Amino acid sequence: MDLNLDSILKLELEALDRAHLRRTLHATSGSSETFHNFAANDYLGLSRHPALIEASRSATSQYGTGAGASRLVTGTNSGVLALEEELAAWKEKEAALVFGSGYAAALGTIPAVVGRGDVVILDKLAHACLIDAARLSGATVRVFPHNSIEKLEALLRKITAANIENKSRILIVTESLFSMDGDMAPLREIIDVKELYGAWLLVDEAHATGVYGATGAGLLGDSGLSGRVEMIMGTLSKALGSVGGYVAGSRTLVDWLTNRARSFVFSTALPPGVIAASRAAIEVSRSSEGMGLRDQLRQNIAHFKEGLTAAWKEKARSTSAIQPLICGEAATALQLAAKLREQGFLVPAIRYPTVPRHAARLRVTLSAAHSRDEIEALNRALA
Ligand SMILES: *Cc1c(COP(=O)(O)O)cnc(C)c1O
């Protein structure tokens, strides 16, 4: 048996190839003008907004390109504290903490609040960072079928019956808008049952932030439910056009995470330019311009759906900017994505393990920045 690292990895890569599950990187930079990008999560087109670019440029000129160290070591750039206050106010929570990415926010937060002897209950379709964080915490991990309140409640009943002395903490984790299916969690029902059973709830608003609610605060934003959710997390990297993650909650939660979230404590702070761009993004999102962009996005989604052929329409059930077109097998999705690419459209084929086996799909994401012509051209290509 050849124990050389590369020999072993080559065999494994060949197996991925055979299953049509191998991933490779394609250069698009410099050519992003020539591709019609229906792959990005830049739902409002903010990553190219002049206000974000100028804020980033100006903060970079003033403070430099890097933060230099973690915030506990070098101290905190005042822009970060302002961003956290703005996030907290927007999300209707007392406080917020910014991390290097959404992934890092999940990985830092969940293991800081639950551990061995506790239980994390995940929606079946929860994002990889939520699954990884739950596993890392050492808590027992349970999964309920996607959006099934009955199964969630059955799990809660079973877990609480065994938890007579209330020694175990129970944390439910879900997304508000699901990243690969574009559908929404029944948040009100989840909150009702979690309160009934004394569990806590973390809601990941990664794909809803900027996009839903009068000011773009997310699906919890306008619902009046934020106060009943212990932890609201999300990313600055999707509709907000920048990079970074955050958790919003009580002041006490944020004080605790500042001490115990390892991906916060032991990781370098985000660069000043990124922080400034994120603040500008929130400002745009909360303004009437943001409202206009959300309107435009909704019109673009409707236009895309109307222009689909009957066969695709059948598959396009989502009402959000995330439009999964399920193809089934990975090979089919890859072939279709390659054909679209030849015609100048960037639409990713999403395969296992990102989505379940035999549920491979094209994932079309719409943006307020798309033109009607572009959307119609994509519809023609799909036809
Ligand atoms: C993208 C995503 C994340 C991770 O955010 P990053 O800032 O890209 O690390 C977390 N949760 C969900 C649901 C996501 O889609």
Descriptive tags:
Aspartate Aminotransferase, domain 1, Aspartate Aminotransferase, domain 2, seven-stranded mixed beta sheet, 383 residues, alpha/beta, globular, binds pyridoxal-5'-phosphate
Structural account:
- The mean pLDDT is 94.
- The protein contains 15 helices and 12 strands.
- The strands form 3 sheets. The protein has a 7-stranded mixed beta sheet, sandwiched between helices.
- Helix content is 44%, strand content 14%.
- The chain has 383 residues and is of the alpha/beta class.
- The protein has helices at 5-18, 50-63, 71-74, 78-90, 102-113, 128-137, 149-162, 187-196, 251-260, 262-265, 272-286, 288-306, 310-315, 330-342, 372-382, and strands spanning 36-37, 95-99, 119-123, 140-144, 170-175, 200-204, 231-235, 245-249, 322-328, 345-346, 349-350, 360-365.
- Bound molecules: pyridoxal-5'-phosphate.
- Pyridoxal-5'-phosphate (PLP) is lined by residues 101-103, 127, 129, 175, 179, 204, 206-207, 235, 237, 245.
Q: How would you summarize the topology of this molecule?
A:
Elements: H1 5-18, E1 36-37, H2 50-63, H3 71-74, H4 78-90, E2 95-99, H5 102-113, E3 119-123, H6 128-137, E4 140-144, H7 149-162, E5 170-175, H8 187-196, E6 200-204, E7 231-235, E8 245-249, H9 251-260, H10 262-265, H11 272-286, H12 288-306, H13 310-315, E9 322-328, H14 330-342, E10 345-346, E11 349-350, E12 360-365, H15 372-382
Parallel strand pairs: 1-10, 3-4, 3-5, 5-6, 6-7
Antiparallel strand pairs: 2-8, 7-8, 9-12, 11-12
Helix pairs in contact: 2-11, 4-11, 5-6, 7-8, 11-12
The chain binds pyridoxal-5'-phosphate.
